[in-house]
Amino acid sequence: MLDTMTFTKAAGGICGALLVFLLGKWAAEELYHVEMHGEASYVIEVESGEDTAEVEEVDFATIMASASVEDGAKVFRKCSACHKLVEGENVAGPYLYGVVGRDKAAAEGYGYSDALASMEGAWTPENLSGFLEKPSSYAPGTSMGFAGLRKVEDRANVIAYLDSLDD
C-alpha cells in the first residue's frame, strides 16, 4: 500500500509547497518594504492642533467624593485573585484589609519586593491611585504583574471600597 514512490511524492509535494510559501513571503516583504527616495510629490496641508479643546483636569479628591463602594466591590473582583480582605491572610499579594492609611510594605507576614520595601510613607488615596494606575511605573521593579486600572473612576471606587471595609 505505502511504497517508496508514494512517500517520495508526498514529501516532495510538502517541500514544494513550503518553498512556494517562503518565496511568496520573501516577495511580499520586498514589495511592501520599499524605501521612498526623494520628496513627496503631493503634500496635504493639515491644520495645526492648537485649536483643540483642552481636557479639564479634575481633582482626585473630587472624584473620591463621588466614588461608589458598590462599584468598587465589582472592580475589586480583578484584585481578588491575588489579594484577600482578611487581616493577616496573605496569598500571592498582601492582604488589603485596612490598606488605606497603612504604611507601605507593612502587611505582616508578606515578603515585599525591594521596590516596595524601600518606599516610605502611607497608602493615601492619592498614592493608591497612582499605584493602581500602573504599578510598574509607580514602583519600578515591583513583583506585582497587574497592568493597572486606566479609569480614574475605577481606581476611586476600589479605594472607597477598601476604605469602607475597616472601621
From TrEMBL:
Keywords, sorted A to Z: Electron transport, Heme, Iron, Metal-binding, Transport
A molecular function (GO) term: metal ion binding
UniProt superkingdom: Bacteria
Coiled coil: none
SUPFAM superfamilies assigned: Cytochrome c
Pfam families: Cytochrom_C
Sequence ranges assigned to domain Cytochrome c in this UniProt record: 67-166
Annotated protein name in UniProt: Cytochrome c552
Organism: Roseobacter denitrificans (strain ATCC 33942 / OCh 114)
